[in-house]
Amino acid sequence: MPRPIQAFISQSALAHNLDVVRRSLDHAAQAAGGSAPSIWAVIKANAYGHGIEAAVAGFSAAQGLAMLDLSEAVRCREAGWGGPILLLEGFFEPADLDIVDRYHLAVTVHTREQFDMLARARLSRRIDIMLKLNTGMNRLGFSPAAYASAHARARQLHDQGVLGSIGKMTHFACADGAQGVAEQLQAFNDATRALPGPVSVCNSAATLRYPEIAVARDHQPHWVRPGICLYGASPFADVPAGSLGLRPAMSLRSQLIGVQHLAAGAEVGYGAIFRADRPMRVGVVACGYADGYPRHAPTGTPVVVGGVRTRLVGRVSMDMLMVDLDPVPAAEVGTPVSLWGQDGPAVDEVAAAAGTIGYELLCALAPRVPVTHGP
Q: Which sites are catalytic (predicted)?
């Protein structure tokens, strides 16, 4: 039989989480007397490990999809997605524009070099762009001082028939924390106030915490770009996904493949970093860091065995990890194990125990793990 590990992807959970975001935006728009923004469902990194095709189906009610890789954009079109697609890092070489043109993609423009490539391109249609402003994240984007001239360059290419819609976007660095978005939002408004075009500023954290800033109160289209929350994980370290009404879309499951009876003082796993302080039973689970489970997850990381919450013990191996079976006296070889997701701990709990974030664990699901799709 195959090794007893699999990831289950719930299409209904994806759709539910998108609806949670939509209802929050609708409520904010109603309260503010404006129009709710459109949603670009962010499906970069193979839809955060969930699979592009699953995301296309689960997010069918979104107005658009956003990602990084041209190959993933092509997969969306081949899966039947006919709506807008935005490449969040734009394009990297002139040949990319052939694919952008052929598959009717919109692109983020954040450098002078991209303008130069657009000016030299031979295109069959106008390309829609989002012109990125660096408001303090200091990754991609034109500085506030250079933004007006960048927008003028975009308008020039528009007048030459190269560009279509010219949007304005930025990315918040601290929407999930105490610093918030006020300073960056002010910088964005100051730099773009007099410039026409669609607007997009909100990622998952800003969309959920500050939905009012995404509400359209002018005649320009507004878009949000939620990512992690659509997969049922929280963008906030201090707010569980469940309290936001989100459902886990990925569940990582396995089984016990061995049981050891330890005497007091016996050690477990590589490095002998766990020592039993009493006689105890330890279960061996068919899951390790080669499957995407974090190697640095410490003793105490939550695991659910046979429906009972227990803990990881010792060091995670490439193909196995060990769990405390004392809370689960009926557990035996073949007992089901939930590493995270539905019927298990939240992926954010596992990530927090391992000193990382849920994004990393979802994206790190290894190709060798079989994936099952369902409702």
A: 44, 270
- Start-to-end Cα distance in the chain: 25
- Retrieve residue 193's tokens: 């106030």
**Max Cα separation, the chain?**
79
What pLDDT digit, counting tens, does each position of 52-61 carry?
A: 999 999 999 9
Q: Residue 2 and residue 263: Cα distance in Å, rounded?
A: 32
Q: Do domains 11-232 and 250-373 have the same CATH topology?
A: no
Reported pTM? 0.96
Residue 155 Cα to chain centre, angstroms: 32
- Using one digit for the tens of pLDDT, what is the confidence trace for 192-240? 998 999 999 999 999 999 999 999 887 889 999 999 999 999 999 999 9
44 is catalytic: yes
**Does 139 count as an annotated binding residue?**
yes
Ranges of H-type helices in the chain: 11-32, 44-48, 52-58, 70-78, 96-102, 112-120, 144-159, 182-192, 204-209, 347-353, 358-363
State the catalytic residue, choosing from 48, 210, 270, 359.
270
Rounded to the nearest 5°, which phi and psi values hold at 258? Answer: -170, 155
Question: One-letter amino acid identity for 194?
Answer: A
DSSP 300-318: T-EEEETTEEEEEES---S
- The full set of domain ranges for the chain reads 11-232, 250-373
Q: Is 23 annotated as a binding residue?
A: no
Q: Can you tell me the distance from the alpha carbon of 203 to that of 60, in angstroms, rounded to the nearest whole number? A: 19
**Angle subtended by helix axes 112-120 and 144-159, to nearest 10:** 10
Q: Which CATH number fits domain 250-373: 3.30.200.20, 3.40.50.620, 2.40.37.10, 3.30.1490.20?
A: 2.40.37.10
The position carrying tokens 């295109």 is 123
- Would you call 293 a catalytic residue per the annotation? no
Q: In sequence order, what are the beta bridge partners of 313?
A: 322
- Specify the CATH number of the domain 11-232: 3.20.20.10
